[in-house]
Amino acid sequence: MIPAGISIEEIFLLAAALFVVLAIMMFYRAVAGPTTQDRLLAVNVLGTNTVVILALLAAGLGEPWFLDVALIYALLNFLMAVAISKFTVERGGVL
Amino acid sequence: MIESIRFWAIVVLVVAGLFFTFVSAVGVIRLPDIYARAHTASQTDTLGAGLALAAVAIALGWQHATVYTVLLLFFVFITNPTAAHAIARSAAETGIEPVTGDSSPEEDPDEEGETS
């Protein structure tokens, strides 16, 4: 049975808040990472968390155009990771 | 009845996504070197994001936005391990040595040449 007083929108907003807390935990590795690749990995995971937060807000607030922003953000996040990985290597061969 | 099943499916998927993202955050903060961090980040972050996006797709129902969510799920599922692979390969090509269990460089730097 569905418990009374709890709606699906509230569950999505609560999950988005917890994902924000988990994304803030990633800032420790992005600041304190000893190498460039550690920082890059932390920023990449943080970007994936941002995409999930945008999708949860799109379902929680009932505004589906947030998903367009999330799609473009995921694409730019992947492009950022591959580009910085290429630029840190001498001859640029990472894939 | 079908609304109840949909509600609990959404709750289970969101909680599982939160759990795997929490595992990813703990792994990225706690594990010793870049290769282990890339492993845990790609593995559990793909699963966490995938389950949370599946919950969003179930909640939206049959409309245009669900197609965007499934496309986003597919895209994250493909590109996240690719980005982790590129990061780990660039770490390998810039000369970062993986931490092995038999000799840590902080404790006994004299034996580093013998065991490697």
TrEMBL record, chain A:
Keyword set includes rRNA processing: no
Coiled-coil segments on the chain, per record: none
GO CC field: plasma membrane
Transmembrane annotation, as ranges: 6-28, 40-59, 65-89
Subcellular location: Cell membrane
Membrane topology field: Multi-pass membrane protein
InterPro entries noted in UniProt: MrpF/PhaF-like
Protein name: Cation:proton antiporter
Species whose genome carries this gene: Natrarchaeobius halalkaliphilus
Automatic annotation (TrEMBL), chain B:
Keyword Transmembrane helix tagged: yes
Protein name, as recorded: Na+/H+ antiporter subunit G
Compositional bias of kind Acidic residues: 104-116
Region (Disordered), start-end ranges: 94-116
Transmembrane segments: 7-29, 49-78
Family matches, as InterPro entries: PhaG_MnhG_YufB
Annotated keywords: Membrane, Transmembrane, Transmembrane helix
Protein's organism: Natrarchaeobius halalkaliphilus
Coiled coil: none
Gene Ontology MF terms in the entry: sodium:proton antiporter activity
